[in-house]
Specification:
Blueprint: H1 2-13, E1 19-23, E2 29-34, E3 39-46, H2 49-65, E4 86-89, E5 94-101, E6 106-107, H3 115-132, H4 138-142, H5 165-182, E7 191-194, E8 203-206, E9 209-213, E10 220-223, H6 225-236
Helix pairs in contact: 3-6
């Protein structure tokens, strides 16, 4: 597998002697790609229409965010044919790949949390979502994802699996609060495309300031306030 990936990168992206390191990923196979002078992130998907369509939608979001020509978001890399999506055959099946620029920085999860850093975190997300407020993508808008907070009630079916009665009671209480206080408001809350997963291993910082965000795999068309809710939760954790 590794050998076929290296051949594909050399052929389609003109990378010289790329070295691969497997990274964590649940919706795609992710690799750090290093050459003598550059780093990239490689994402590999099954060659299925829904996966390819969503990979293209992710690229559209990232390219939209590059209108200000900053280095805060990964940038999709074109192959030799001028395409952002590449297909290749390994030993067993056809795969779809995307190559992205690598962002330097320390993970928020490894950093000491200060008021300055958290203020920067909020400002960063606000500026990102202002940039995203006018973009439309029907693949993202049609997608229903279990990690999207507007589908929170999908998780109610798991309550019986909480074996500790006191912990189960707490969870039941918060589901009830959601139904009474949040659910009636959903139709009135602003919706747009958001990152949807500003967690402490997706957010990067430098010099006590948030400098970038990676992994747009949970990008969704959801209530704008959910971006803030997710960020606050991870900041507290």
């Amino acid at each position: 597998m590794m050998e076929s990936i290296i051949k594909m990168l050399t052929k389609n992206y003109d990378l010289k002697n790329p070295k691969l390191k497997k990274l964590v990923g649940y919706d795609s196979d992710n690799y750090l790609v290093e050459t003598d002078c550059e780093k990239f992130i490689l994402k590999i998907y099954p060659n299925q229409k829904n996966k390819v369509d969503f990979a293209e939608a992710e690229n559209e979001v990232l390219l939209h965010l590059q209108q200000n020509k900053n280095e805060r978001f990964p940038v999709p890399i074109k192959n030799r044919n001028g395409k952002f999506i590449t297909s290749f055959d390994d030993e067993k099946s056809t795969k779809t790949i995307r190559l992205l620029t690598f962002l330097e920085g320390e993970f928020l999860g490894d950093a000491k949390h200060t008021y300055k850093l958290l203020d920067s975190f909020g400002t960063f997300l606000a500026e990102m979502d202002l940039s995203l407020k006018d973009i439309q993508n029907y693949v993202i808008e049609a997608r229903q994802n279990k990690w999207d907070l507007q589908h929170f009630l999908w998780n109610e079916k798991y309550i019986p699996y909480i074996s500790n009665p006191s912990e189960r009671k707490i969870v039941v209480y918060f589901f009830l609060q959601y139904k009474q206080n949040v659910l009636p408001l959903l139709p009135f809350l602003r919706k747009q495309i958001i990152h949807g997963d500003a967690n402490d291993w997706n957010v990067l910082m430098q010099n006590e300031m948030v400098s970038g965000i990676i992994d747009f795999g949970d990008v969704c068309h959801s209530q704008l306030i959910n971006e803030l809710a997710i960020a606050i939760t991870y900041a507290m954790m």
